[in-house]
Design a protein that fits this description.
Helix 10 runs antiparallel to helix 12. The protein has a two-stranded antiparallel sheet. It contains 20 helices and 2 strands. It is mainly α. The protein has one domain.
Amino acid sequence: VSFILEVVMIRYYGSDKPVFYKDSPVILMPELWIILFMIANTVALFMTPDRLAAWSGSNGRYFGLSMVIILTLMFVCLAREASVNKLIFVLLFAVSGFAYVLAYLQHFGFDPFALRERVTDKQKEMFISLFGNINTYGSYICIVLPVFVAVFIFSKKIWCRVVAGLSIVMAGMAIIPAKSDNVYLGLGVAFIFLFYVAILNKDFTEYIFAVLLLFVGLETMAILNSVFKGSQKHINGIAEIVESPKVMLILSLCIVAVLVVSLIFRKLKYETYKKIQCPLFLIIFSILMVIALIVIVVLGVRSGNELFVFNDKWGTFRGFIWTRGWYLFRDSSVLHKIFGNGNETISQLMYDYYFEQMIAITFRKYDNLHNELLQYLVTTGLFGCLSYIGFVSTSFAYIGKRMKGDAVAIGCLAGGVSYFAQSLVNLNQPITTPFFFVILATGIGYIRYRDQGFGKNE
């Protein structure tokens, strides 16, 4: 509504201000791709007999066509212009901090607002903070934490860095209560991205300081967890390492050593310090990372470690649901391959084709494929999946090309990258998935606002 009113006012007053910013070739405009994604979801609505459920998403996680339309309109409006001021920064800190503190309390058995009162004891450990499922809570951390890391590294304001640093420590403490490996995947990708950006901006020391603050939070919660015996259910994978006080202390001391060396080197040979941080360094680093990854995978496969053996039980039965999800797409008609089976239809499809296997192997019922790309491929077809990929890639490219060392722009992109990475093992839902669309729209809108001379690089 606000967008329509603004267009009317622009036309009425004869302003030179454009209704749409055509600052990219049409094919590279994120607005084009998200509108195509909305159209794909609209077409998918007519591919299922239960159109009312596809509209609301009531057969799944309520991410139906109605939600997609809302997110599309929001994105188009917010991406046009967005002023990210101090109030928004402070509110984000306050709201995320409250969510973290609530997670701490629930992790140690306190539920001050009785949010889990009606949840069965068997399921209680799967729900935390304000977000319900632990995976959903984890996806929120993946969006918010990288924003504050970017502000800490790249902001020119001391008070912003202090607030961001405090938020990083609090978020570090909030990771263990998430008990979900999707957090480590998303944050791992975000920190790799921020490392590249920090090197290109000659901010290696600030980056290491941010990593240290994160580990301070992790170490603090690991100690509290061992002393007060926090919830241990669903602790597995990387979480088993992170919750060990001894391991985290060793890693923290290693980071302190790197930080001290970096500070001394920067103090004594500043020009050399800056010169080392160059594209060539990143190329060498990337090559070493690829080699290390190959070695780890080869050794992991040879060792027979469960992490490297893909079967139905892999990734808490993600192997099962991903395989069956692919079969649903593979065995569908050409028309359904192109336009999908309908919004939020996984529950019905699994019931129709794989119900007995699902119960016998996983002992649970699935209404989502736990991989957003695969989810869109089956529900909205190639049209929807490719439109979504186009939307994400053009949004990333738009912000990435215009960051200019700006903390806000970098933070928005880092949060988006982090969410997208974890979404490859997680599901879309109406609680935190909208934040992904919001943060990308904010990044694009902020850049357009800034480049008109209104915003400040702080």
